[in-house]
Specification:
Elements: H1 9-12, H2 23-35, H3 39-56, H4 61-68, H5 85-96, H6 100-109, H7 114-123, H8 136-148, H9 154-168, H10 173-193, H11 197-207, H12 212-215, E1 228-231, H13 235-241, E2 247-252, E3 256-262, E4 268-271, H14 283-292, E5 300-310, E6 315-316, H15 319-323, E7 339-349, E8 352-353, H16 359-369, E9 377-379, E10 382-383, H17 388-400, E11 405-410, E12 422-430, E13 441-443, E14 447-448, H18 462-473, E15 476-477, E16 497-499, E17 505-508, E18 511-515, E19 530-534, E20 537-541, H19 553-574
Parallel strand pairs: 1-12, 7-9
Antiparallel strand pairs: 2-10, 2-11, 3-4, 3-5, 5-6, 5-7, 7-8, 11-12, 13-17, 14-16, 15-16, 17-20, 18-19
Bound molecules: adenosine-5'-triphosphate.
């Protein structure tokens, strides 16, 4: 067994000052860390590695840190690789020209470790020509490309990216490339079921990434990160997307997301979209689910929407009414705003996690486990149809009964519950998409202008403006954060004050345009220009979202592209 003193980071690989850091350097350091057992020795190697990078090529420090942390971007950008072992195996077989059978055999021989398989197969091959050395930057950039691929042929494109890395990898590089590809995915999956770094980090340190799924599994009382939906503009588009697939349409209720956990001892936990405790806010919900679960049900996790409800008039109330409800320590007898629960999914039942089941199976469990009670607890209204007219009518019915629109979900294929994911398998269709851009954006204010300015049609009332500026005044910072992207090309748009990012505003626009002055989504739809909003209107503060959950650059770009396609379709039709 080697000692850390035997591994001299500085001597492991040489490269010239200012040249990009070779990936081999990181791979060798990881190799040295892997055989260590003591935390101090591991940390020492990692520190030496970072120090060497800082001294020689400081520009590469960031990609090195991200790779070591098995991330490819800050959490709030929501980038994920979206690859599994099946895709990695395919890329391995194709790169090294081996058969699936041979890979499987090696996989069994080598303790089911795909990294070791990659290394063994690569080292058994004679290279005609030494490939050009891989750099950390190349690996990092390719991981980004993998994460950004979407659409029907994304698997094939991801596969090709993995292959370009593998052909250039030698020595222990293939092993660590595979580990990094797998690790990012494992940590992400575990996090989405147990979103608690307090649990994940100690488990990572003591058992390593491969034991993580075992060490950190789902626990009743810890909310799963909820699955969310992608916006689309109209029923025809959705029908086209889901051709040949069975799908179901549900009312999209306009209330508050609630994940309800019922433990075997009869206690109940209710969690918001953000995973915050909402148990004290809804004693009536606790009473209803306890009363309406069937006797065979001993534990469950329900995914629901809680809406304000006028029981006398039997009418669903708008979201604003629900906001009036007190948030903590609510006592039954004090409740003024009544609520109604619409359950649309079940994630756990009687000790069994159901995330991997298809929606039709989960739904069956849901319907069999509860008794409906009109006005108190019901299943989300749903139809399964592929008749365009029928769906249009269903959408109108939804809107007429006080809902925002529909959520359309795959039913028996590609229909598992995908925690924390804005999934392609849940599509939201809102009535108001039809008259402006696809969806509102959730934005974080980072700067402001003093004075009243022009605000006709901006959505701010006098009172709201007063309240917002009072809350933001305490957030003023002397200079912009290093990661703010802005342009000083036009003096008119240089703000008077910069702000600490602190809250999320829902803003709706009449459209999105390419702009030389604004920087949102720069580099995605245009190499040097960003995207700006036409006639933005403030809709409200999203108190249920934290800044990490604001719309990402990719979402802005997707929305811009969707709008472009729609405009193009309209133009084509006019021609
Ligand atoms: P929005 O502002 O449109 O609600 P969002 O980002 O908060 O967007 P999305 O995931 O995009 O949330 O939209 C789904 C949300 O709709 C869920 O978080 C949930 O609160 C709500 N919802 C209402 N009815 C349903 C339903 N039948 N199935 C799933 N979600 C539903």
């Amino acid at each position: 067994k080697k000692k850390s003193a035997d591994f001299d980071v500085k001597r492991a690989v040489y490269w010239g000052e200012g040249e990009r850091v070779p990936f081999m350097f990181v791979a060798k350091a990881l190799d040295a860390i892997k055989i260590e057992t003591g935390r101090i020795a591991m940390t020492e190697i990692a520190c030496n590695l970072l120090r060497t990078v800082m001294e020689t090529t400081p520009d590469d420090l960031l990609p090195v840190v991200y790779l070591l942390a098995t991330r490819i971007a800050p959490a709030h950008e929501g980038l994920e690789l979206g690859i599994g072992d099946a895709l990695i195996t395919k890329a391995l077989a194709e790169t090294f020209g081996t058969t699936q059978e041979h890979l499987n055999k090696k996989y069994k021989e080598l303790a089911k470790d795909l990294g070791l398989v990659a290394k063994a197969i690569r080292s058994s091959q004679r290279l005609m020509r030494k490939p050009e050395a891989l750099t950390v930057l190349k690996v990092f950039d390719t991981f980004h490309l993998i994460a950004k691929e979407s659409g029907n042929d994304s698997k094939e494109k991801k596969n090709n990216h993995i292959k370009t890395l593998l052909v250039a990898a030698t020595g222990c590089e293939p092993q660590y490339l595979i580990y990094l590809l797998q690790a990012a995915e494992i940590v992400k999956q575990v996090y989405s079921v147990i979103p608690e770094y307090d649990k994940i980090v100690p488990a990572l340190v003591s058992g390593g990434v491969w034991n993580l799924p075992k060490a950190c599994s789902f626990t009743l009382g810890i909310p799963v990160r909820p699955m969310s939906a992608k916006p689309m503009k109209g029923v025809p588009e959705i029908m086209e997307k889901f051709q040949d697939m069975e799908f179901t349409c549900e009312y999209k209720y306009d209330g508050e997301r609630a994940q309800i956990h019922y433990m075997e001892n009869g206690s109940v936990g209710i969690y918001s979209r953000n995973g915050e405790q909402n148990t004290g806010k809804f004693p009536d919900v606790i009473a209803a689910v306890t009363r309406l679960k069937k006797p065979t049900v001993t534990s469950f996790v329900l995914d629901c929407e809680i809406v304000a409800y006028d029981r006398e008039k039997q009418k669903i109330q708008p979201f604003e009414i629900l906001r009036k409800r007190a948030r903590k320590n609510v006592v039954m007898s004090d409740i003024k705003v009544e609520v109604r629960i619409f359950a649309f999914d079940i994630l756990y039942l009687n000790g069994q996690l159901l995330l991997q089941e298809q929606l039709n199976v989960r739904r069956e469990h849901l319907y069999n486990s509860f008794q409906e009670e009109p006005g108190f607890f019901q299943f989300a209204t749903a139809i399964t149809s592929n008749d365009l007219e029928e769906i249009q009518t269903f959408l109108d019915d939804a809107v007429n009964s006080g809902c925002e629109g529909l959520i359309i979900k795959t039913l028996n294929k590609d229909a598992t519950y995908e925690p924390s994911k804005r999934s392609n398998n849940w599509i939201k269709l809102k009535k108001d998409y039809m008259d402006s851009i696809g969806d509102s954006l959730d934005l974080v204010p980072i700067a402001a202008f003093n004075g009243l300015g022009k605000r006709t049609g901006s959505g701010f009332s006098e009172a709201v403006l007063e309240e917002l500026s009072a809350s933001l005044r305490s957030k003023v910072i002397p200079k912009p954060k290093s990661y703010y992207r802005y342009s000083d090309s036009d003096k008119k748009i240089i703000p008077d004050v910069w702000l600490e990012p602190s809250e999320v505003w829902e803003v709706k626009a009449a459209g999105l345009t390419i702009s030389a002055h604004y920087r949102a989504a720069i580099g995605i739809v245009h190499p040097v220009k960003g995207i700006s909003m036409r006639f933005p209107r403030f809709l409200g503060v999203r108190e249920d979202k934290n800044i990490e959950q604001a719309s990402s650059s990719d979402m802005v770009a997707d929305m811009y592209n969707a709008q472009k396609n729609i405009q193009k379709d309209e133009r084509d039709e006019n021609v």
